[in-house]
Amino acid sequence: MTRRTRLASRPSAQLPVVVLGAGLTGLSAAYHLERGGHHDYLVLEAEDRVGGLLRTEHVAGFSFDHAIHILYTREEYVSGLIHDLLRDNLGRQRRRSYCHSAGVYTEYPYQTNNFGLPPEVIADNVLGLISARHESLQEGPPEHYEAWLLRTFGRGIADHFMLPYNRKQWAWDLQAMSYDWIEDRVPVPSIRDVLLGALRRPLEATGPNREFWYPRTSGIEALALGFVQHLPRPRLRLSQRVVRVDPARREIALASGERLRYGSLISTLPLGRLVAMLGDAVPPAVVEAARGLLHNTVHTVNVGLRGTTFGPAEPMHWAYYPDADVLFHRISFPHRFSAAMAPPGCASLQAEISESSLRPVDRGDIVRRTLADLVRVGLLTADEILPVERGGRVALTQVVSLDPAYVIYDLHHRRHVRTVKEHLRPLRIQTCGRFGDWEYFNMDHAILAGKQAAEAVPD
Ligand SMILES: Cc1cc2nc3c(=O)[nH]c(=O)nc-3n(C[C@H](O)[C@H](O)[C@H](O)COP(=O)(O)OP(=O)(O)OC[C@H]3O[C@@H](n4cnc5c(N)ncnc54)[C@H](O)[C@@H]3O)c2cc1C
């Protein structure tokens, strides 16, 4: 704490509970504190809006989430809560997602939907899988994520889709990543499923997100606002950036110089940033572990378009792009999640581009390259990517960057998280959420993490 900060204010009277961050985890914590009878808490959010990753940008009649956000869960409690919060504003949809490779669009997941790919690619994929299954009987566990992908899918599927796609999405060296986060995130098929998927069109969508929900209006931010409706206004303070946490005094300093005292602290801030706020008393091993927590950045390029047609006739919700020469790894179409996401007679799309120190992106050129690559993948023509005023279809472009976006599971991830959390535990700081736990959390995990933190607050 600087001398100026110390003189700037006296600390407040002690607040029983303080929650840092009003993203989904922080809002869920606050909601469950209310429900648990803790009415004397305060949520501090750095931005002037709640939501964190669950924000939606509204511009010239178009709406764009901070990257594609669909709702699905296996957790009954979370499903019930989402329905209670959004009520009539929740639409159910059947996933329509595709993979673009070898110049064609095939259905997602790539591995079980080879129908339509060139015969040579199908042969590589099927034969590669058969040899991989045979070889895996003789080998020990894979050393890293790349080896896991090769072992699980074989050389064909790995080279044609899995390796190039994952390199783009993670923007990291797959040989330096673990695979203990996979669970059901990457579907592992049988040889029979792959063969059948090469011989005919898919009969039905599979996987945990084959059906999902999405708000009818207001974008995914509607979920964050659904929580806010249940929170008394004075409990939520926006534009309050936390810069320092002193666990010995149980005191927080804000960028404004204000100091607040707390009884219990729930932090949803990125774990490494929280450690940096603790000051000099942190042992070097913990500082080192915190610095070793890796993440990437995702840039979203939002494009508002006149007209509703695209090159491929499939009414896609989103599509994946493994090609290393194409800048983006995923394109989604917000107007197909809800008609309210674009003005009548218009369409919208959103490109996602991952960046890290290993895969730098020329941010000044990101819009131009995205538009050029939309032509390369057959979504739009060279004439269509011109601005409306020059006879094209592009009504607006906007770039929104998410940082952090994905936690990177490098080979030291578990050890680093454990070291940091073991240091924080006796300091009685609960850290939770996608970046508080430093895990690949979806919205349902974030909701549950906030609930658990609220329930662990002593009476
Ligand atoms: C590209 C992408 C796509 C995704 N798609 C899906 C999907 O389709 N389905 C799904 O279920 N999940 C999806 N997710 C995951 C989902 O977004 C997260 O699980 C969830 O939003 C995490 O919420 P959180 O509150 O833990 O973190 P955040 O949303 O990051 O909230 C943290 C909050 O802390 C605030 N903060 C940070 N520093 C300070 C400070 N110093 N002082 C005060 N406040 C501070 C931030 O402003 C932010 O509001 C996706 C995530 C990404 C990145």
Can you give the mean pLDDT?
A: 94
Oligomer: single chain
Low-pLDDT runs: 1-7
Please estimate the helix content: 25-40%
Shape: globular
Taking the sheet with the most strands, its summary is: 7 strands, mixed
Count the beta strands: 18
What ligands can be seen in this structure? flavin-adenine dinucleotide
Q: What class do helices, strands and sheet pairing give?
A: alpha/beta
Q: Approximately how much beta-strand content do the residues carry?
A: 15-25%
Textual characterization of the structure:
By secondary structure, the protein is α/β, with parallel strands linked by helices. It contains 14 helices and 18 strands. The strands form 4 sheets. Strands 1, 2, 9, 10, 11, 12 and 18 form a 7-stranded mixed sheet that branches. The protein has a 7-stranded mixed sheet with strand order 7-6-14-15-16-13-17. The protein has a two-stranded antiparallel sheet with strand order 3-4. It is globular and about 70 Å long. It starts with a helix and ends with a helix.
List keywords for this structure.
single chain; 459 residues; 21% strand; binds flavin-adenine dinucleotide
List the helices and strands and how they pair.
Layout: H1 3-8, E1 15-20, H2 24-35, E2 41-44, E3 56-59, E4 62-65, H3 76-86, E5 90-94, E6 97-101, E7 104-107, H4 119-136, H5 145-170, H6 191-199, E8 211-215, H7 221-228, E9 236-237, E10 242-246, E11 251-254, E12 259-267, H8 271-277, H9 284-291, E13 297-306, E14 318-320, E15 330-332, H10 334-337, E16 346-355, H11 366-376, E17 394-402, H12 413-424, E18 429-431, H13 434-438, H14 443-455
Parallel strand pairs: 1-2, 1-12, 2-9, 6-14, 12-18
Antiparallel strand pairs: 3-4, 5-8, 6-7, 10-11, 11-12, 13-16, 13-17, 14-15, 15-16
Bound molecules: flavin-adenine dinucleotide.
